[in-house]
Amino acid sequence: MKPEIRTALIMGAIISGLVGGLGTYFSTLDQPDDFTAQDMSKTDKSRFKKAPELVGIAGYINSDSTLQEEIRGKVVLYDIWTYSCINCQRTLPYITAWDEKYSDQGLVIIGIHSPEFEFEKDINNVKRAVEKFGIKYPVVLDNDKKTWDAFENRYWPRKYLADDEGYIRYDHIGEGAYDETEMVIQELLEERAEKLGIKVSAQPLVDIEQYRHGSRTPELYFGYDFAFGRSQIGNPEGFRPNQEVTYTIPDKLHENNFYLDGTWKNLEDRMILTSESGRIVLPYFAKQVNIVAAGESEIQILLDGKTISAQHAGTDVRDGKTAIKEATLYNLVSMEESSSHVLEIQARSGFEIYTFTFG
Questions:
Q1: How far is residue 169's CA from residue 163's CA, in Å, rounded to a whole number?
Q2: What is the per-residue pLDDT across 7-24, written as a single tens digit (0 to 9) for each?
C-alpha cells in the first residue's frame, strides 16, 4: 500500500473516532435530568434483607387475606405489638398519626398482633383494643407467632420499615426514636415517588409529647412459666405449678417483690384468687403502676396504707376502686416522678392477675 493511502486511512480512523466520541458525549448531555439523578441515587441493597411474607395468620382486622398483594410497591411499616403491653400502647399515638398523615402517599402500616398471653388470641378482644386505640390500618393476628419468627423477632414492640421493593431498611426495638422513624418513612416515600415520577410534599414531623421514663421496678410476672428465671414472689411458699397455695404475707418486705395473702391457684401464665378474699402487697419504685388482669371483679387500691388519692390514681381507678371487666391492662397509679411506695390490692374470689408493669 502506498504511504500516502495508508496515511489517509489512519487519519480517517482518527477523525471517525473523534466524531463518535463527541457524539456519545453530546448524546449523554441530551439525557433528561432524572436519568442522572436516578443513576446516582441508586442504593446498594445487597446488605438488606427482604421482609418475609405474612404467615400463619389467624385473622384479619381492617383488611383480609389479600393484604400481602395489596402492599406490593408500597412502603410498609410492620409494627409487632400486643394490646395489653404498656410499651406497645405508648407507641400507638405515633403510629396512628403516621397512618393518617402518609397513607395517601404510599405508606401502608400493618399491625402484627403477636400475643404474649392466651386471652390476647381472641379476635374479639383484639377488635375492642383496635377500636379503643383508634387503629384504622390493617391488623393481623399472629397467634402462633409464625410471622414473629419469620422476622426473627424477640421483642414487643418492634417496628420494621420496608421500602417499595420489600427490603427492610430500618428497624427499632421498644419505645422512642419517633422522629428518626418518621424521617426514614419520609425518605422511603420520596424514593418511591421519584421512581414513579411524582412529587411528595415535605411535611413537619408529628408533634406528640413523648412519655419520659424514669428508674422503675422491672416487670413482675404471676405465671410460674413466665416468671421462670426471674421470680420476684416474696412469699416463702414461692410458686407451686398448678396448685392452690395459701399464702401469708411475711413481716419483712423487700422492694421489687410482690407478696400474696389468701389462696391462689398457680397457673403457667397467671394466678387466680380462689379464697373468698385476698391481697397483693407490692413495695415498688416507679411513676406508674399497671396490671394485666382478668375475671370480672372489683378491686380496692391502697397506696402506703391508705385508699389511693385522686391525685395519684391511675386512669382506671375511680374512688379508690378498679372494675375488672375484661382481660387487658389497667393503670392503677400515675405520678409525675418516680418514687418509692407500697401498693396494696384487695380483691375477691375470681380475680385473675398476669403481671405488674411500670412506667
A1: 7
A2: 443 444 433 443 344 343
Q: How far is CA 156 from CA 41, 80, 83, 94, 113, in A?
A: 34, 6, 10, 16, 10
Residue 28: pLDDT above 50? no
pLDDT higher than 70, residue 334: yes
pTM: 0.86
Radius of gyration of the chain (CA): 30
Residue 202: the pLDDT is 82
Angle, helices 178-196/86-102, rounded to nearest 10 degrees = 30
Per DSSP bridges, beta strands 75-81 and 107-113 are parallel
**All cell numbers assigned to 295:** 375475671
Q: How far is CA 183 from the centre of its chain?
A: 18
Q: Copy the grid coordinates of residue 275.
A: 379464697
Q: Look at 28-32, 93-97, 170-174 and tell me which has the smallest mean pLDDT.
A: 28-32
Could you report the per-residue pLDDT of 250-268, keeping only the tens digit for each? 999 999 999 999 999 999 9
Residue linked to cell 393484604: 67
pLDDT at residue 42, rounded to an integer = 66
Neighbours of 69 (CB within 10 A): 7
- Per residue in 43-61, pLDDT (tens digit) is 788 899 999 999 999 999 9
- Is residue 138 reached through a cis peptide bond, with omega within 30 degrees of 0 on the bond before it? no
* b (16+ CB within 10 A) / e for 122-145: bbebbbebbeebebebbbbbbbeb
